[in-house]
Write a structure and sequence with these properties.
Elements lengths: L2 H9 L5 E10 L2 E11 L4 E6 L5 H8 L7 E6 L2 E6 L6 E3 L3 H5 L2 E4 L11 H12 L4 H14 L15 H13 L5 E5 L7 H16 L3 E5 L3 H7 L2 E6 L2 E6 L1 H6 L4 H14 L1
Parallel strand pairs: 3-9, 3-10, 7-8, 8-9
Antiparallel strand pairs: 1-2, 1-4, 4-5, 5-6, 10-11
Helix pairs in contact: 4-5, 4-6, 5-6, 6-7
């Protein structure tokens, strides 16, 4: 290996998240069929497509909640799950727990503990999982809640919040864990239309701050304006990917054109 090649290798950017040939079968259905993906540090990737196209399953495989039938997932260059040489079976990587903590998933339905205040919900992970001293964790929790516009709701219980406020609290909970990347699974689909804007604004702010994100969304305008790259999935594969304007406004594949066209007709 010559000096130039060595230098290029040293300067290569390690993907924040990488999927290699992921396959996942549920029952008789092939939900993922050889999906490969690289997400660079600081990149915002929006994943669009019809219901049942494999989008949510992809996120769950990327974070280890679903174990694919074949393929590998790496986070920051570290194996999260894949085949191990000793047994040649698909299994979690040797540093699974430490690697898994680098990424967080914000679910569609909030998953807050109703018996705890918003502040207590945000404090759980740092104090119990990361073993952060409580005073330090509390200071950081207050900071992230202020960041998502919930400073005045510290001692409020989830049942007394709007859907948009609950979702912002769920985002704050992941921010408090100091994740290197965040995954979002249709986080606005359970919200009334008037509450969608406040959640999307928080995500736009995160994108502006350089947070690495993979976002499954049906909000096409948001994908176009906030993402660096858009992927269109159908039938368990990535059919097309590229800049938001190219994929959403000038798609090259017939399946993408059909999907985007149906979205536009609903808006008109």
């Amino acid at each position: 290996m010559d000096e130039g090649t060595t230098q290029a290798t040293a300067n290569a950017v390690i993907p924040a998240i990488e999927a290699r040939s992921l396959h996942k079968r549920l029952g008789q259905a092939d939900v993922l069929r050889g999906v490969s993906l690289e997400v660079a540090p600081g990149e915002v990737v929006a994943v669009i497509g019809r219901s049942g196209s494999g989008k949510s399953t992809l996120l769950r495989c990327l974070i280890g909640l679903e174990r694919p039938d074949a393929g590998e997932v790496l986070v920051g260059g570290k194996l999260l799950l894949g085949r191990q040489k000793v047994t040649d079976r698909l299994r979690f990587g040797p540093d699974y727990r430490r690697t898994r903590l680098q990424i967080g998933l914000v679910f569609q339905h909030f998953t807050l503990f109703p018996q705890l205040t918003i502040l207590q919900n945000v404090l759980l992970g740092p104090t119990i999982v990361l073993k952060v001293p409580r005073e330090t964790a509390r200071r950081e929790a207050v900071e992230v809640l202020a960041r998502v516009g919930l400073l005045d709701k510290l001692n409020t219980y989830p049942d007394f919040l709007s859907g948009g406020q609950k979702q912002r609290a769920a985002i704050a909970r992941e921010l408090a864990m100091h994740r290197k990347a965040l995954l979002f699974d249709e986080v606005t689909s359970a919200l009334d239309p008037e509450l969608v804007r406040e959640v999307l604004q928080v995500m736009r702010d995160l994108a502006a701050d350089g947070t690495t994100m993979v976002i499954v969304t049906h909000e096409m305008d948001f994908a176009r304006n906030a993402a660096d790259r858009v992927l269109f999935m159908d039938g368990g594969v990535i059919v097309e990917q590229g800049s938001p304007d190219r994929v959403i406004l000038h798609p090259e594949e017939d399946r993408t054109r059909e999907f985007v066209g149906s979205y536009r007709s609903l808006r008109e």
